[in-house]
Amino acid sequence: QVQLVESGGGLVQAGGSLRLSCAASGSTSGTHAMGWFRQAPGKEREFVGTIRWSGGSYGNTYYSDSVKGRFSISRDRATSAIYLQMNNLKLEDTAIYYCAAGRPITSTMTTVGGYHSWGQGTQVTVSS
């Protein structure tokens, strides 16, 4: 399995930007996509976005409606790291952000169950 370590979280004012990183190590052969989820206090973990790197969908990115147009995911092919660029942050973006890797199919791409490996999470706090 692949091991994931997130970094880059912190405190930012509303309207500001942050860039999260996710370093991947170990075997990535069983991974077809890597993505980001987030979990706010008292809420379930929710999908943020994902990037595919297999098959005809290689390089395709997908985002939740709540972050579309503000967040973007990119990947470093050499290191298998992924990044989450977050712009125009809002108070409701405050959460722990988790990196995930897996082999999701279309129907599971936005679900926790579609991913087999998770990082420990990094806190993002947006203040007014």
Summarize the structure.
The chain is 0% helix and 52% strand. It has strands at 2-7, 10-13, 18-26, 33-39, 46-52, 61-63, 71-76, 81-86, 95-102, 115-118, 122-127.
Q: How is the topology of this model organized?
A:
Layout: E1 2-7, E2 10-13, E3 18-26, E4 33-39, E5 46-52, E6 61-63, E7 71-76, E8 81-86, E9 95-102, E10 115-118, E11 122-127
Parallel strand pairs: 2-11
Antiparallel strand pairs: 1-3, 3-8, 4-5, 4-9, 5-6, 7-8, 9-10, 9-11
Task: Write up this protein.
Helix content is 0%, strand content 52%. Strands 2, 4, 5, 6, 9, 10 and 11 form a 7-stranded mixed sheet that branches. The chain has a 4-stranded antiparallel sheet with strand order 1-3-8-7, with no helix packed on it. The protein is mostly beta strands. The mean pLDDT is 94.
Structural class: mainly beta
Q: How many H/I helices?
A: 0
**DSSP helix fraction:** under 10%
Give the assembly state of these chains: single chain
* Overall pLDDT level: 94
Q: Report the sheet with the most strands, covering strand number, pairing sense and barrel closure.
A: 7 strands, mixed
In total, how many beta strands? 11
Order of helices and strands: EEEEEEEEEEE
The gyration radius over C-alpha positions equals: 14 Å
Strand coverage percent: over 45%
Shape: globular
